[in-house]
Sequence to fold (178 residues):
Amino acid sequence: MSFYRIVWLAAGAALLAGGVLGAGGRAALSAAPPAWMRVDAAHKLVSFTVTAAQGGANGTLNFNGYANGQMTVIVPAGWRVHIDFVNSGAGALPHSLEVIRDTGKIPSQGIEPPTIPKAETGNLIAGVPPMQKDTVDFITQPPGRYLWFCGVPTHGTSGMWVRFDIVPGGAVPTVTIK
Fold:
C-alpha cells in the first residue's frame, strides 16, 4: 500500500469521525495531498493538474503516470472540480479527458455528451495535441462510480483510464493508489 493511500485514508477517517479541526473550524490534515491536487474545503473546490502521458507508464497512455484503474480519485458530491489538463507530449500522441460513468465496460472512444455536464476537455475524440493544455471545470453530481477516460479512439481500451468516484457529502477529496 502506498504512503499517500495510507495517509489519505487515515486523514479521511479522522475527519469523518469528527477528526482534527484547525483554526476557524477548518479541517487540518497532517500530510499534504499529492503535488498535483489542491483542496479548498472551505469553498468545496478541488483542483487537479492532470498530466497525460506522464513518463512511459502503459506506453504513455496514462494520467499522472497511472492507467488501467490503478488510481482512484474520490470527491464529494456538490464540489467544484477544476482540472488543468496537460499533454506532456511523451509518445507524441494527442490525449483528452472525459468523466464517464463506470459501467464495467470501457468504450472504444469518447462519449458525447459527457456524463457530467462540462466534464471533458475540448476536442474529445481528436484530443489535445502534444505539449498543449486545456482546462475542465464542473460540479460533481450525482454520487456514483465514474472514470477519468481518454476519449481518443483506442486509448481508453488500451488502459488510459483511472477511477473517479463521487461520494455523498461529508467526505474530503482523496486519492488512492493500487
